[in-house]
């Protein structure tokens, strides 16, 4: 495959094409197909954007029907039939059964646009600028969201000082015996802690980019309580792990918390079409008309597929049960790997169909597994501060047989990567006469 034009014309900033250096041409369900006709199983799902698979037939059918009838495609934030139906469906399928009242703000099309709006609104409501974010958190790379993103690679690329954010240790950051909420509580209660009183806390219930770090349910509940006690808004960034990824439509439901503000994007349109949404409690809606704007807030094609995705998958509980069944399958498989290779220092963590195979922080094992898996026809990525976590994000709709095939590839790739590591170690021992440096 000739990738020269990508090297010659596309900026050095390009990323995923380096990890998966082929030219993809088609995709169906959980299968990606490159220009030579080679097929790959997709355990990446566009970083969590394709929860219902590529070119999902039901969603595509609705989209084609809509286009065939010359349905409105672009409409800023004017009222449209597609948007009306999306809001009615959102209310009927998600809000009404939970007895939740949230206002909807449609922002520019990508996740970071939703986060920018959420942070801006929280600051406006509380009249304070500081926001609490967490170690290893990822919220986007535009200036406001980047300030709340922990990863130094992205922060260093900002070209300016990023401020108005205080980073706190996420659940488990200080080890299993340290409750990081008590630290945050101490700072909030101490008028001389040096921390400016925050307007809000922004949190992911499972940190996707940060290494599949899972917040304990009680930790999330305690965080909510702390927000109420200290007059801070609770923002759950559900961009990566919302829309069913953890087993329920909203990832925080299992913790029984009610955030003040929620951001959604990625799999919201269900078809890979850009769409972002901010939900907030009605009393927070202090926006002046047009005070926050954007040309692409009305992706009507995304509204069509998003409404259909809610109708097709979230109108009854069977889909959730199926996600849990697949979660158990993936989890068992990965845990077996951990037990099969006790010397490799592996562990597993995750919730629903975001599962991480955690490898030692140094040594590049996860990257090596991902590369070998790709050679064998599986697209899977790594995450975490040192790219030490192999992050499994299969479509929620993946057929069992394909899920198994993908897991088998991971198993073979792990065995090959460990064998290679072992050979390297032995070569070192030979070279340094047992002093292995
Ligand atoms: N928030 C979370 C939790 C994310 O995982 C991401 C992207 O990975 C974003 C925000 C930013 O979304 P986008 O890349 O669409 O701007």
UniProtKB/TrEMBL annotation:
It holds the Pfam family Aminotran_3. Its cofactor is pyridoxal 5'-phosphate. Pathway: Amine and polyamine biosynthesis; ectoine biosynthesis; L-ectoine from L-aspartate 4-semialdehyde: step 1/3. Keywords: Aminotransferase, Pyridoxal phosphate, Transferase. The gene is ectB. GO terms for molecular function: diaminobutyrate-2-oxoglutarate transaminase activity. This is Diaminobutyrate--2-oxoglutarate transaminase. Its EC number is 2.6.1.76. It comes from the Bacteria. Belongs to the class-III pyridoxal-phosphate-dependent aminotransferase family.
């Amino acid at each position: 495959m000739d990738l020269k034009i990508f090297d010659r014309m596309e900026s050095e900033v390009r990323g995923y094409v380096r990890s998966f250096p082929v030219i993809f041409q088609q995709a169906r369900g959980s299968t990606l197909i490159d220009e030579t006709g080679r097929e790959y199983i997709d355990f990446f799902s566009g970083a969590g954007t394709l929860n219902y698979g590529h070119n999902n037939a039901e969603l595509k059918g609705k989209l084609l029907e809509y286009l065939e009838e010359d349905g409105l495609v672009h409409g800023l934030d004017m009222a449209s039939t597609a948007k009306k139906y999306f809001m009615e469906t959102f209310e009927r399928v998600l809000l009404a059964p939970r007895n939740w009242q949230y206002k909807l703000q449609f922002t520019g099309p990508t996740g970071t646009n939703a986060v920018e709006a959420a942070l801006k609104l929280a600051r406006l409501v509380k009249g304070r600028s500081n926001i609490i974010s967490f170690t290893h958190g990822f919220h986007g790379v535009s200036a406001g969201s980047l300030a709340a993103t922990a990863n130094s690679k992205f922060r260093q690329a900002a070209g300016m000082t990023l401020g108005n954010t205080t980073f706190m240790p996420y659940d488990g950051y200080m080890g299993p015996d340290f409750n990081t909420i008590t630290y945050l509580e101490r700072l909030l209660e101490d008028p001389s802690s040096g921390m400016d009183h925050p307007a809000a806390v922004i949190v992911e219930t499972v940190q996707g980019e940060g290494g599949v770090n899972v917040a304990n349910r009680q930790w999330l509940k305690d965080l909510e309580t702390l927000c109420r006690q200290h007059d801070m808004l609770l923002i759950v960034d559900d961009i990566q792990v919302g829309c069913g990824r953890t087993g329920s439509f909203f990832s925080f439901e299992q913790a029984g918390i009610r955030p003040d503000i929620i951001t959604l994007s990625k799999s919201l349109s269900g078809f890979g079409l850009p769409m972002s949404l901010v939900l907030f409690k009605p009393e927070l809606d202090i926006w002046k008309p047009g005070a926050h704007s954007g040309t692409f807030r009305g992706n009507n094609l995304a509204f069509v597929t998003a409404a259909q995705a809610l109708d097709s998958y979230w109108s009854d509980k069977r889909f959730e049960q199926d996600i849990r069944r697949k979660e158990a399958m993936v989890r068992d498989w990965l845990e077996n790997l951990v037990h099969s290779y006790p010397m490799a220092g592996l562990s597993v963590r995750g919730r629903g169909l975001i599962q991480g195979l955690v490898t030692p922080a140094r040594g590049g094992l996860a990257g090596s597994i991902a590369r070998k898996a790709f050679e064998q026809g599986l697209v899977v990525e790594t995450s975490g501060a040192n790219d030490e976590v192999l992050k499994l994000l299969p479509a929620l709709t993946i057929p069992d047989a394909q899920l198994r095939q993908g897991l088998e590839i991971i198993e073979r790739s792990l065995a090959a990567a460990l064998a290679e590591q072992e050979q390297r170690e032995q070569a070192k021992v030979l070279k340094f006469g047992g002093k292995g440096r």
